[in-house]
Amino acid sequence: MKYKIVLFDMDGTILDTLRDLSDSVNWALRECGLPERTFAENRRFLGNGIFNLIHRAVPEGTPQDLEDKVRTVYKHHYEQHCNDTTKPFDGIPEAMEQLRKRGYRLACVSNKPDDDVARLAEQHFGGLLDAWSGPLPGMPIKPAPDLCDRILAMEGLTREDAVYVGDTEVDIETAKNAGMECVVCAWGFRDEDWLIACGAKTIIHRPEELLEILE
User: Fold this and answer.
1) Do 97 and 68 fall within a single domain?
2) Are 207 and 89 in contact (CB under 8 A)?
3) Domain count for the chain
């Protein structure tokens, strides 16, 4: 077995969170008197954490205090509604079970707030994930490798022991910065042509394909 641990991104990789995220963005925009965004726009805005998400969603030139208000309203709404429609992608739990049977440890690293990561990981992947982490205060978000390093330290492993699985250019860059091989999912927040343009080398279209790669 070449690797000992599989590090998964959360949103768009193992969990279909897009509807709940988009609904919370638009709730916050409406509450603050700003125009809503389309589902497709919110899909493009995701991947770089909450600060970048809201900065992209508000109209250009929005005053900083209003942008900060939108972010606060969004965060409160999403904390209450992060699990309204969210569910694992088809085939993900089964693929995880097979990987665990083969002896792999499994973990999740996400730019989502750490409390939200913990809540969703425990509810949807209890018994399947060995560890998970969102950014702690003062910790750089992905594509910095710090979240990956935190998980590896928790598990007593090194970067050489890990393979990274994600769905956006942020994940491709994260794996590169961590010196890890990256497996990219085509079912997430980005189109396949974009992923290829961003340097994706190994792209899978079904979770079962990950089992073939990690034989």
Assistant:
1) no
2) yes
3) 2
Same domain, residue pair 111 and 188: yes
* Domain coverage including residue 48: 18-81
Residue-wise pLDDT tens digits, 67-103? 999 999 999 999 999 899 999 999 999 999 999 999 9
- Residues 161-172 have pLDDT tens digits of 999 999 999 999
| Structure token digits, residue 156 | 């007593």
- Other CB atoms within 10 A of residue 141 CB: 20
Phi and psi dihedrals of 164, rounded to 5? -110, 140
* Cβ atoms 194, 37 nearer than 8 A: no
Cβ partners under 8 Å of residue 98, min gap 6: 211
- 123 by Cβ neighbours in 10 Å (0-12 / 13-18 / 19+) ranks as exposed
Tokens standing for residue 32: 């603050």
190-205 tens-digit pLDDT: 999 999 999 999 999 9
- CA-based radius of gyration for the chain: 17
User: Under a CB-based contact definition with an 8 Å cutoff, are residues 45 and 18 in contact?
Assistant: no
Nearest to 15 by CA among 46, 51, 55, 57: 46
> Could you count the other beta carbons within 10 Å of the beta carbon of residue 72?
13
| Strand, coil or helix: 30 | helix
